[in-house]
């Protein structure tokens, strides 16, 4: 749990839900005292990491029996539900599903210059060279002229696909493959970054602040 919370925060996960599982196995079963003990300990830990416990729903559950997963359980007469406060407003509920529904979708940085780090590069028969990766910022469209850093190679995007379906545009969060013109698979490598050649394309740097 500690490692997961730290990893989540380090990777930029801003919203958290704490499901206190196996409540059917406490002594006695569905113990309020044990739940409060865990809630206090985990709240203290996630606060040290950087989360605000007031914005984190804590839900006592039993995954095995389905308690408080989809429907409020009668096994927790003491549990009045979770409530959170965040700058976007308040939210409350009783179940894990309601806590998941209360998560706010992150804003997608489509207005920023395109940045697409390559995860892999494939040579596909009858199609050609297909780099694969996730759009981090900006938008990728067929017909765009892209520049790859640090090799400074510029080419046109012929098509963009996600899950074997052609896309008119790919936005941040999309894992895509895109076919590029007149580029050998040997010229591109995992770790290269694609950008829009007309809008602040990525460039190599001698040094940077981390």
Automatic annotation (TrEMBL):
Which Gene Ontology molecular function entries are recorded, alphabetically? GTP binding; GTPase activity; translation elongation factor activity
List the subcellular locations.
Cytoplasm
Question: Which residues does the UniProt record annotate as the domain Translation elongation factor EFTu-like?
Answer: 128-193
Record bears the keyword Nucleotide-binding: yes
The reply on keyword Nucleotide-binding is yes
What domain of life does the UniProt record list for this protein's source? Eukaryota
GO cellular component entries: cytoplasm
Domain Tr-type G: where? 1-105
Which keywords label this protein? Cytoplasm, Elongation factor, GTP-binding, Nucleotide-binding, Phosphoprotein, Protein biosynthesis
Xref: CDD domains: EF1_alpha_II
Chief subcellular location: cytoplasm
Q: Which Pfam families match?
A: GTP_EFTU (PF00009), GTP_EFTU_D2 (PF03144)
- Name the chain's protein: Elongation factor 1 alpha
- Which species does this protein come from? Cyclestheria hislopi
Q: List the gene name.
A: EF1alpha
